[in-house]
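I have been asked to look over a protein record a colleague put together. Alongside the sequence sits a line of tokens, each denoting a local backbone shape. Please read both lines and tell me whether the tokens look consistent with the sequence. Take the sequence as given and treat only the tokens as open to question. I have pasted the whole thing underneath without changing anything:
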Amino acid sequence: MIKVMFVCHGNICRSPMAEMVLKELARREGVSDRLVIASSATSTEEIYRGVGNPVYPPARAELKKQGIPCESHHACQLTRADYDRYNLLIGMDKYNLRNMERITGGDPAGKIRLLLSYAGRQEDVADPWYSGRFDVAFSDILEGCTALMDNLKQNGLLSRGPSEERNKLK
């Protein structure tokens, strides 16, 4: 089982969009049963009294427009323990990566990566919170998630036993 955690600042736009996109790609590939996919935030800005805000309505609308189901989701914060629970922790931008390493206490196993790095781009996923361009963010996320899925398949990570999967992700 491959466990993937997507991370952004608030966990109401980019990271839940990536979570839903990868879940849909996995469903279409017939490998949903081999992946655990979640998302979280580096901040607590969208979490009030222990309850996280839902996916931001324009992000939900963009997913719907693209034919991607948006499951029920509420913002939650990344924890130090998530580093051990997940095989991959994938940030949407370089600031996320820095904050992810601070929260998890570092990245000794090399699990923390930038989403678009899977597509050969060392660039941030466009942040629609500031631009309002959820279509551009979706395009970046789809490119990154498609490349991630291709990487997992090419490396045989969706067909091997759990211990082999864990070792190949490094």
Remarks:
- Helices lie at 14-29, 57-65, 82-85, 94-104, 128-131, 134-154, 162-168.
